Amino acid sequence: GAVVSQHPSWVICKSGTSVKIECRSLDFQATTMFWYRQFPKQSLMLMATSNEGSKATYEQGVEKDKFLINHASLTLSTLTVTSAHPEDSSFYICSAPRGSSYNEQFFGPGTRLTVL
Amino acid sequence: GNSVTQMEGPVTLSEEAFLTINCTYTATGYPSLFWYVQYPGEGLQLLLKATKADDKGSNKGFEATYRKETTSFHLEKGSVQVSDSAVYFCALSARSQAGTALIFGKGTTLSVSS
């Protein structure tokens, strides 16, 4: 089946620093990728849609200057958490649909971010 | 708006017990419905899906039927195994700001003991 990877799987950083998370589709091309945030014992919350070759589209309430998204190629999207604060600590998950149908998405294993 | 509500966990069962995890949804239009499973240390995987009313999705012994009249998509399995221990997410496809994305329930943790 299709594989989506994320790197790093776990990161700890100091408050005020920026952290970049990579999402790669390993065996298929993805013009669109999705970024989710998951709080403990809560659902995945869609943050933004990453579009190859154009700007990302953010969901209401998500700060675009805080969470920078770049879809550099058909297999790579990056999420940069800028000037991170402890409240940004969370589990970040990306997904990519394969093909023209969005009815099946493939998820990365997630990145655990802890901001001290 | 669009939302998914699924039963709170954790659900603890003995091997070979019957499993039901309830899921109801609110949506505009006619969404597709999904169950995803997350095994420890792994990413979410699609377990099954249904794209229209009365469709039944099935996979690995799990089943769920798209019930439009009750806006439900309950997950069932007749005989669970220890290897089924995981977190299960009910989801629907819906229009987001940019296109179509998945709206998830909070997840239900299933623990099966031998």
Account of the 3D structure:
- The complex is a heterodimer of chains A (116) and B (114).
- With 116 residues, chain A is mainly beta.
- In chain A, 0% of the residues lie in helices and 53% in strands.
- Chain A has strands spanning 4-7, 10-13, 19-25, 32-38, 44-51, 57-58, 67-73, 76-81, 90-97, 105-107, 111-115.
- The termini of chain A are far apart.
- The mean pLDDT of chain A is 90.
- The mean pLDDT of chain B is 91.
- Chain B has strands at 3-6, 11-14, 19-21, 23-26, 33-38, 44-50, 56-59, 62-65, 75-77, 86-95, 100-104, 108-113.
- Helices cover 0% and strands 53% of the residues of chain B.
- In chain B, strands 2, 5, 6, 10, 11 and 12 form a 6-stranded mixed sheet that branches. Chain B has a 4-stranded antiparallel sheet with strand order 3-9-8-7, with no helix packed on it. Chain B has a two-stranded antiparallel sheet with strand order 1-4.
- Chain B is mainly beta and 114 residues long.
- The termini of chain B are far apart.
- At the A-B interface, β4, β5, β6 and β10 of A face β6 and β11 of B.
Spell out the key features of this protein.
heterodimer, A: 116 residues, mainly beta, 7-stranded mixed sheet, 53% strand, globular, B: 114 residues, 6-stranded mixed sheet, 4-stranded antiparallel sheet
Assign the structural class of chain B, choosing from mainly alpha, mainly beta, alpha/beta, alpha+beta, or little secondary structure: mainly beta
Helix amount of chain A: under 10%
Which geometry of chain A do the CA atoms define?
Answer: globular
Low-confidence stretches of chain B: none
In total, how many beta strands of chain A? Answer: 11
On the 0 to 100 scale, the average pLDDT of chain A is 90
Regions of chain A with pLDDT < 50 over 5+ consecutive residues?
Answer: none
Instruction: Give the radius of gyration of chain B.
Output: 14 Å
Counted beta strands of chain B: 12
The overall pLDDT of chain B, averaged over residues, is: 91
| SSE ordering of chain B | EEEEEEEEEEEE
End-to-end Cα distance of chain A, whole Å, is 37 Å
- Taken from the alpha-carbon principal axes, the silhouette of chain B is globular
What is the overall number of helices of chain B? 0
- Radius of gyration of chain A, Cα only, in angstroms? 13 Å
Order of helices and strands of chain A: EEEEEEEEEEE
